[in-house]
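Supplementary notes for students who missed Thursday's class. We covered one full example, reproduced here. Read the sequence, then the structure, then the short commentary at the end.
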Amino acid sequence: MPAKRVAIRKTRSSSSSNRSTSSSGRSQSRSASRTSSSSSLSLPTKPNEPPSDLFDYGIFIYGEKGIGKTSLAAQFPDALVFQWEPRRRNVRVLQVPEPGKPELDWESFCEYQELVLAERKIRTVVIDTIDRAYDACLDYVCQKRGVTHPNQMNDYGETWALVKKEFEDVMNRFLFSDKAVVWISHARYRVVPGRLGVEVEQLVPTCKPAAWAYVRAVCDFAFAYTWFEYQRVLYVRGGELIWTGCGTSEHFLQPSKKGMERAGEPYNAIPMGNSPQESYKNLVGAFQNKVEGLFLEDIVGG
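Structure (token representation):
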């Protein structure tokens, strides 16, 4: 019996020794792998320089129906509009589908995407609207899974995750291409807590929360296109009552010229003129700090 106990102890000791040796080998292997991987990496030596061209940024434009969002986006260089809105014929644009062709669905959108990405003459892609594009993606994924809505699956969010992945994967192909991308949505009001503890109405996009989350993540600029009295204005910095996103402190500044009040200060809105061509010219000029803007206090005071 004692001999057996000794034998057992020796076996356990041997097993423990083997595990220790094996663990040590794995650790050395991981260490060697990390060393090999890190040898090809290097730390930056200077800060990233933001692009100096407006078209190198992701742009989101939302606003009231008919205010001129699509007409403005169509002025971007060599633009093609994915027209998800049915029977839009009042805007002179290069668009798919062409009038008389079947409306877009997610599968045809992806097929058109292949053609657009391969076409060097197309420099700007406009998604009009991201609302309908996201809805089409959701319908596509649900159809593949045999349901009409993700909640019907009762799968702990798996179908919702598939919708999110499908939508982002396809949109990211445009985002990481060599083309400028403009996403469009309509506008609505929602009630939010104000700074003074009183609820206020805030202008926001109409797209679904998941599509809005995507926009917030990838777009450098989110502009609100609306009215101030009798003129169209594009909000670049909206404040409490108008949601916007402006990912820069170096653009959309009051021009630095003689006699200009508040020169060099960041303003809130750009006057957009009376035509798509003038609107586009003002947007580009404002990005270059050459267009006089409007401040919230001036607008509210007016």
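Commentary. Residues 224-302 form one domain. Helices lie at 2-38, 69-73, 106-118, 130-144, 158-175, 209-218, 276-287, 296-301. If anything here is unclear, bring it to office hours.
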